[in-house]
Amino acid sequence: MNATTQQTQQHRTTTAGYWVPGLHIEESSIKVPLNWAGNTPGQNVEGRTIDLFYRVVDAPEHVGANLPFLMFLQGGPGGASPRPMSPTSDGWIAEAVKHFHVILPDQRGTGRSTAVDGRTVQSMSGQDAAQLLKMFLADSIIRDFEHLRLTKFGGRKLVTLGQSYGGFLTLTWLSLFPNSLAACFTTGGIPHVPADAEETYEYTVPTMQRKTEQYYERYPQDRERVAAVADIITAASEQGSALQLPNGDELTVPRLQTVGQCLGMKPSFETLHWLFDTAFRAGAGDVPNIGSAGSAESAGSTGAASSQVDPQTALTDAFLHDVAEQTYAKALYWPLQEFIYANGELEKPIEWAASRVVAKHAQFSPDARPLLFFGEAIFPWMFEQERQLRPFRAAMDLLMQDTHFGTIYDADQLARNEVPLQAAVYFDDMYVNSKLSLDTLSRIGHSHAWVTNEFEHDGVHGNRVFKHLYECARDRGDLRNL
């Protein structure tokens, strides 16, 4: 056993360990600087610190074995690493623990790492909150992971698996610390370089429309059900008493449209179909008609007269609960959403890129029928209507006009890249456009793309995608030096 292995094993045996079915878990945390300016990964940390939490997951037979380490880079932004219930609860884990010790870090601000949410920023000025949020982007995240690699894993080269935004982080790591990684896998996570938020939405907004249309083609009866829900919401608002979600947020038609953020996953069509199946309280849950006076009549009722339904009570509590749950504002996911495309000094501010692009497409109007759904997109109204996001509003207004961000991609370094990169590119991906991904990969050294339309954006969570990527890299000889 060499010195690096001894150091790594010594670290791992001093952390807390326990078991979940089929897996051994060790947990630990380290201190990292809140602001990496003036600090260098691997050296003593100066200034204010935050906690970075991580787990190491092993197959029972591999605890203490001399295996390479694979770090999972979670999607997001603002996503914590998965909490495995078993090797098969998140499909890629079962394959990964056959070959690796698996590191599951909670990115700064998420999970058990020092939290950042609305309560963190509610007492801050907009300027202070804006500066804080900029410290939770890829340049800081990767420096955290590089510090973890150097201080707790003996400086040995890691393998990475980046899902979605985790692929963005992969390119940041390859740009900033190209000698730290032995091999990389990405799934639905190759951004366009050069990065541009507006360009991204020019591609993804039409995909949102296409996915909605495919949903209605699969369940044509839902056109009427979705339209009726939107009409009820509008009627209630016109009566002067907007509908409320269980958490107290106002339910507007644009908020309803954001349930479409699931459309890039499987089984999204069924998720939406069953959501709207239980929307209506009257009768057997039939579609009501909205009268000119703002009342609702059951379109499926029989008899001499149909019962009128008040828009205030037309929707079931279960439906309102599920809408609130599906559109819940994750703490960093929405505030950071458009700034993951900000690389260094920008030529122009981002200025609510998704909102500007959607405004060019009248078919997304809340009054349009059939009603179209939004995918992964943020809008100014979210930071007014949603209580979890309101504390971020002042910071968002400032950041949307900002042009000074940390460097996250180095195109020249990526062109010279020597680390094997195996990327799963989902042809129909709603979140990360495949055309833009392939254009980027064409300019990254030692990169290989597997393009497939068999999976949606969440394909890695099954049992086939990572296995296929691993075998492709292995058979090419890209893993021979692990």
TrEMBL record:
The keyword Cytoplasm does not apply. One of its GO terms (molecular function) is aminopeptidase activity. It comes from the Bacteria. One of its GO terms (biological process) is proteolysis. Residues 70-220 form the AB hydrolase-1 domain. Keywords: Hydrolase. This is Proline iminopeptidase. The lineage of its organism: Bacteria, Bacillati, Actinomycetota, Actinomycetes, Bifidobacteriales.
